[in-house]
Amino acid sequence: MLNMLAAVFLAATVAPAHEPATSDALIIAHRGASAYLPEHTFEAYLLAYGQGADFIEPDLVLTADGHLIALHDLTLEATTNVAEVFPDRAREDGRYYAIDFRLEEIQRLRVSERIEADSGQARYPKRWPPGLGEFRIVTFDDLIVWLAELNRTTGRRVGLYPETKFPAFHAKSGQDIADALLQVLLRYDLPKPSMPIFIQSFEPAPLERIRRDHGDRFSLIQLIGSNDWQMNDVDYGSMVTPAGLQQVAAYADGIGPPLSALLEIDASGRPLPSPLFRSARDMNLAIHPFTFRREGLSEGQSLESLLDLFLHKLNVDGLFTDHPDVAVERRGLGHSD
Q1: 30 tagged catalytic
Q2: Which of 30, 67, 170, 323 is the catalytic position?
Q3: Signal sequence span per UniProt (predicted)?
């Protein structure tokens, strides 16, 4: 879907409601500057900060002893050497679940560039070499402390954009990941002007509960997946209808859809804002699409053109990218000195 759209927009003009001279969209560092260094490591977060990202995005899961750690998957084998350190700790399905390990054990693992389970090869071969370096898993507490100090010393106000990963899975394991996240944020008196916060989730239930219990204290983003992903029991097909978005607007400040969901092609082959885009705009929902990266584009396409389309034609409110430096540069197009 993305490649088809990209091939069209590179040769066409999108017709938005208006075309601003520049963009003030938020640049969200997807798992840090993950195009350059292994995802969800301090090094990737630090690089994203230096590249000018407005928000650092940590995906969060829980350990057996209730600590929030930055990890995209429920399992550890795709991005760590867990099978070497704990060869006898896999479940019957052969997977190593983070929730089965204490924090002390997690901290013994070495993080690597993501590999594919079936081939054992890097998912993105042109990125950081798998196995190179001494990267470690980051706790959410440590990330907050680190970011607060860096904001203090630089005078910047870079925020955090945590995602509660698989709340229903954690609940079945006796853990409440949304509550764990809130406890940490409240302990550090977040959000605050020096460190804004967005909370995101693919599952509505935790976001609805946060809105009910904490009012407007937290900015909430409903992520939109695909029913084909079979990641939970949410019906995303219904969610993206006007009626579904109306329900989302009752508890969330915005949506995080796949970027391909925001465009459609008319009879003449011209790309236009999709019904989802138009409905979200009508309901004053912020639009933060994911994920902008160089991989997955066809020959002749470019990340720069993709960013230009969404930043300066569609005028999205923010975007998730593995390349914060490129997004920051493209966002600045049209600024006058």
Answers
A1: yes
A2: 30
A3: 1-17
Query: Do residues 231 and 166 make contact, with C-beta atoms less than 8 angstroms apart?
Result: yes
Tell me, yes or no, whether 51 lies in a domain: yes
Residues 119 and 243 in one domain: no
Q: Which amino acid is at 319?
A: L
Element (H, E) at 214: helix 204-214
Taking Cα atoms as reference points, which of 192, 251, 243, 182 lies closest to residue 221? 251
List the CATH number of the domain containing 257.
Answer: 3.20.20.190
Nearest one of 288, 227, 298 to 259, comparing CA atoms: 288
Q: Which two tokens stand for residue 141?
A: 């507490």
Residue where a domain stops, chosen among 108, 136, 164:
136
Give the count of alpha carbons within 13 A of 163, CB side only: 27
Give the active site residue among 18, 40, 67, 72: 72
Chosen domain end from 136, 151, 177: 136
Chain centroid offset of residue 217 CA: 21
Q: What is the DSSP-derived secondary structure letter of residue 137?
A: P
For 295, the domain range is 26-75+138-334
Residues in Cβ contact with 9 at an 8 Å cutoff, skipping those fewer than 6 apart:
263, 271, 305, 306, 309
Same structural domain, 146 and 102: no
Question: Is 72 among the catalytic positions?
Answer: yes
Quickly tell me which residue has 């219904």 as its tokens.
Answer: 238
Burial of residue 108 (number of CB atoms within 10 Å: 0-12, 13-18, 19+): middle
Local confidence pLDDT in tens for the 337 residues of the chain: 555 454 444 444 554 545 555 799 999 999 999 999 999 999 999 999 999 999 999 999 999 999 999 999 999 999 999 999 999 999 999 999 999 999 999 999 999 999 998 888 999 999 999 989 999 999 999 999 999 999 999 999 999 999 999 999 999 999 999 999 999 999 999 999 999 999 999 999 999 999 999 999 999 999 999 998 877 889 999 999 999 999 999 999 999 999 999 999 888 888 899 999 999 999 999 999 999 999 998 788 899 999 999 999 999 999 999 999 999 999 998 443 3
